[in-house]
Amino acid sequence: MKLEREALRHYLDYSFKGEAKTATWEVLGDDIEEMSMELNPDTEQKRNILGKSKVNDKGYDPSMSADPYYADPSKKIYPKLREIAMKRLKGDKCKTLMLEVIVEDTSAAKHLAYVQEVMVKPQSYGGGTEGVNFPFNVLEDGTRIEGYVTSESLKTDAPVFTEGSIDSV
């Protein structure tokens, strides 16, 4: 059985404090019909004079685009997105945490999750007649930590991240 798209959830810490234990998460996805983490693999393939190929694997430069993202003052992340765009903030003022959760078994008590330091960068603002749009990119910018969230915390829309393996407890 294939996973439905809602099985993969992306949350941003709207406090922008950068601490997983005190993070306040808001899920992304309203008005978005398609959103993927682009891994952007950095590889280079070369063939030497002996006719052998060699791949130089430099890793990944992951990024994700949230587009459209319509201005909604009821969303907790919106004031910070507006501030970053309108004040042209850069560097650490644009850094927060992203929580990625994948729900592979809806009956499980715990679900695989990762917390990642990220940079949030609005790409433009304005838009058409559907509303004011603040599309933004999320770029990985630091440590990625594996852990889990409980199904109970997901039900309350306030996921609680615990570092470590699901099976270790």
Q: Distance between the terminal alpha carbons, to the nearest Å?
A: 28 Å
Q: Structural class, please?
A: mainly beta
Estimated helix fraction = under 10%
Question: Beta-strand percentage?
Answer: 35-45%
Low-confidence stretches: none
- How many separate domains? 1
Shape: globular
Mean pLDDT: 94
Describe the protein in words:
Strands 1, 2, 3, 6, 7, 8, 9 and 10 form an eight-stranded antiparallel β-sheet that branches. The radius of gyration is 18 Å and the shape is globular. The protein has one domain (5-41, 56-168). The mean pLDDT is 94. With 169 residues, the protein is mainly beta. The chain has helices at residues 78-86, 151-155; strands at residues 8-13, 25-27, 37-38, 41-47, 53-60, 63-66, 95-102, 110-122, 136-150, 161-163.
List the defining traits of the structure above.
two-stranded antiparallel ribbon; 8% helix; mainly beta; 2 helices; 8-stranded antiparallel beta sheet; 169 residues
What's the helix and strand layout?
Layout: E1 8-13, E2 25-27, E3 37-38, E4 41-47, E5 53-60, E6 63-66, H1 78-86, E7 95-102, E8 110-122, E9 136-150, H2 151-155, E10 161-163
Antiparallel strand pairs: 1-2, 1-7, 3-6, 4-5, 6-9, 7-8, 8-9, 9-10
Quickly describe the structure.
By secondary structure, this protein is mainly beta. It is built from two helices and ten strands, in the order ββββββαβββαβ.
